[in-house]
Fold this protein.
Amino acid sequence: AEYMGGGPKEQEKLAEALHEFIVTTNPFTRDQEMVSFRNIMDDGGVHVSSIPISLQCPLTLTRIETPARSTRCDHFQCFELRTFLILACRSNEKIEGGDWHCPVCRVHVGATDIMVSPIFQRILKEAPASVKEIEVLPDASWRVLRSVDPEDEIDVEDDR
């Protein structure tokens, strides 16, 4: 499919239809994402003990509501699905040819490459609204790195 112009209303309708499609046909289960997550944790043969993650969208700098990333990306950081789709539809680029770019790593992505992250969804439900950045551990548990409420933060050195 290719998007060829249209006004803001048409672009918004297309973005909303794509959002609904991606959310309802999301093929990733938590178990499948854990396999992907373990591959990310094993960064080129060097195992990392944690991954810092922002709960804020790189496009809007507001808290993510529907966490999405591309299956082509090799990072766990997500972006806000609705914002990404609205901006992508406004760009008049091909939807399915991979002419869109991940806002985190700039890899080419198409609509069918985008998935909603079940692990990130769980983290967003558990983390207080004041939490801005977390550290995800190998078992997909997490701890606060940065918050607007100092009570949420832990001293990482004391916790190890």
Remarks:
- The first helix runs from residue 8 to 24.
